[in-house]
Amino acid sequence: MYVDLGVDGELRRETPEKYWKEVASKLREFVDRDTVNSLSGVFLHGESATDPQFLEVLKEIFDPNDALKEENYVHTTEKHLFAAAHGAAMSARDGMETGFLLCIVSDYCPRPKDEL
Questions:
Q1: Where are the domains of the chain?
Q2: N-to-C CA span, the chain
């Protein structure tokens, strides 16, 4: 977790060029060339998902992968802002339709005594 690289962080306010270089560097550490080529999609969410400088960093990093076109992962600000909520609602709807039979309970989740 990189708390100093937040959208409202001091580094971004004081030295934006350094901030974006650091963001790009951290993304490159996380997504190496082999990983970039194996990605079939990217999911962006949040109020800053359409920040032009952020999108420029992503475009630079994902450029080697022909399958990752900007028009496939950049949408309206509203769509990115509510993407997580939309995904949670879709999961809930699927669960209601299937009775949550496809859900796998994690080992750390509490269970009824009769299931232990």
A1: 3-115
A2: 35
